[in-house]
TrEMBL record:
Protein name, as recorded: Beta-lactamase hydrolase-like protein
Keywords, comma-separated and alphabetical: Hydrolase
A Pfam family reported for this protein in Swiss-Prot or TrEMBL: BLH_phosphatase
InterPro entries, sorted: BLH_phosphatase-like, Prot-tyrosine_phosphatase-like
Gene: blh
GO molecular function: hydrolase activity
EC number: 3.-.-.-
UniProt key word Cytoplasm: no
Length: 114
């Protein structure tokens, strides 16, 4: 896998941009679900789309959720949705965005919801 996975807890990790080719490796690493927090085309036309990654994730047996969040405009609704995904998706869960920072911020904010 090209991108480094950074575990934050036993059941949750973040990563920078992943692509369809990474999904089999994510599944092989033991993850059950993936959350995509990077909006499509945020990085331009060369960025893998959520649809392409989702298709590969499903083929690898992963649950997948596309929750695009603009890093500079994160809302309370974004945090609530992320917290709900963490509660309902099978773990361990891997979330990715451009660098992993946005997912880390969402996770930290979701923990504050209790």
């Amino acid at each position: 896998m090209s991108a480094p996975i950074k575990p934050l807890t036993q059941n949750f990790a973040v990563a920078p941009q992943l692509g369809p080719d990474d999904m089999a490796d994510v599944a092989a690493a033991g993850y059950k679900s993936v959350i995509i927090n990077r909006p499509d085309f945020e990085g331009g036309p060369d960025q893998p789309t959520a649809a392409d990654v989702s298709k590969a994730a499903q083929a690898a047996g992963l649950q997948i959720e596309y929750q695009p969040v603009v890093g500079s405009a994160m809302t309370a609704a974004d945090v609530q949705r992320f917290a709900e995904l963490l509660r309902t998706l099978p773990g361990p869960v891997l979330a990715y965005c451009r660098t992993g920072t946005r997912c880390t911020s969402l996770f930290a904010a979701a923990q504050q919801l209790g």
